[in-house]
Amino acid sequence: MSDPISRRTFAATFASTVVLGAGECLAADTPAVAPAPHPKPTEAPFTRDYPPPGFQPSWKKPQVNRLLVQDFVIFAHFDLEMTKKLLEQEPALLNASMDWGAGDWETGLGGASHMGRRDIAGFLLERGARIDIFCAAMFGLLDAVRAFLTLQPALIDARGPHGFNLHFHAQVGGVEAANVLDYLQSVKKIELKPNPFLKKPADAPAKKP
Q: CA torsion 125→139→101→193, rounded to 10°?
């Protein structure tokens, strides 16, 4: 299996979705080129080498469509209105997870959390999404993060979707999560690299040349 998607790959993937129209990027006399087909997910081969469990699921109800789960999780990174629309269409998406490959599982809340989208994360929590330590770190919920780490200190090294750690989620939380970032650094100090998803304050004074 391939390794989980890296931060750089993830950022580049989302950046690549912003594409200019064909009329703006191709000259009039340039023949159009058909886009390469998107790769489709494949399930890893598997054969039991152990006795099957005694309980067998009945599968009376169909699973939520994987393409719908994929779209919901992607929209939950950056588009509140589409997140609302798809959740209204299929409420079961609320806690649905997408495996991006090699066990890189992500929910809509997970995507909103590491993008610092408090509005989307807050909406999902209001609907009953399962909060986790990564979301708590992004929101700056110091008591919750401290409680998690008191319960299990090893969580300081936990990784969320795409391998983003707790420090990263606190970083993207901005000023509101600065207390959590300070606390995490007191527990385990690491080098904080620039966060590609951290928005700059709109009222930040412009730097003088």
A: 170
Render pLDDT for 64-105 as a digit per residue (tens, 0 to 9): 999 999 999 999 999 999 999 999 999 999 999 999 999 999
- Structural element, H or E, at residue 9: helix 7-15
**Entry pTM:** 0.81
Q: Which two tokens stand for residue 56?
A: 């067998």
| Residue 98 three-state SS | strand
- Domains of the chain by residue range: 63-131, 132-196
Single-letter code of the amino acid located at 29: D
For 59, the token pair is 């599968």
Size of the chain, expressed as the number of residues it contains:
209
Q: What is the pLDDT of residues 123-139, one digit of tens each?
A: 999 999 999 999 999 99
Q: Tell me how far the alpha carbon of residue 117 is from its chain's centroid.
A: 10
CA distance 65 to 86: 12
Distance CA 83, CA 61 (A): 24
pLDDT band at 50 (very low <50, low <70, confident <90, very high): very high
Beta bridge partners of 99: 105
Q: Are 110 and 143 in contact, with CB atoms under 8 Å apart?
A: no
Q: CA 168, CA 113: separation in Å to the nearest integer?
A: 10
Tally Cβ neighbours within 10 Å of residue 172.
23
